[in-house]
Amino acid sequence: MTQEPLLMAKQARKNHAKIVLITREKTSPLRQISDIVISLPTNEKLLRFGAVNSLFSEMFASSLLYLSLISPKLNELK
After folding, report:
1. Residues 60, 22 contacting (CB under 8 angstroms)
2. Which residue intervals define the domain SIS in the entry (predicted)?
3. What is the pLDDT along the chain (78 residues), one digit of tens a residue?
4. 38-70: buried (b, 16+ CB within 10 Å) or exposed (e) per residue?
5. Nearest-angstrom CA–CA distance, 55 and 60
6. How far is CA 20 from CA 31, 52, 62, in A?
7. Beta-bridge partner residues of 22
């Protein structure tokens, strides 16, 4: 992991923002300062399906965030 995400998360923490981490890394330093950690599976065994599984996991996680955080407030945003 590069240092930029960690620096941004630390700045967000200073600004009292909530931090949501979506990761496959079990030892990510961001886990320690995140309010919510969404762990994605790491069990991609077949190389040809690896990219598809990664994409599906990312889409599922982002859809879950959308449905739980943004969708209920759509009427307020209009």
Report:
1. no
2. 6-67
3. 678 888 989 999 999 999 989 888 888 899 999 999 988 777 655 555 666 777 788 888 888 887 887 777 777 765
4. eeeeeeeeeeeeeeebeeebeeebeeeeeeeee
5. 9
6. 9, 23, 11
7. 38
SS (H, E, C) 18-50: CCEEEECCCCCCHHHHCCEEEECCCCCCCHHHH
Q: What is the pTM of this model?
A: 0.57
Q: What whole-number distance in Å separates Cα of residue 5 and Cα of residue 46?
A: 29
Tokens of 20: 């949501």
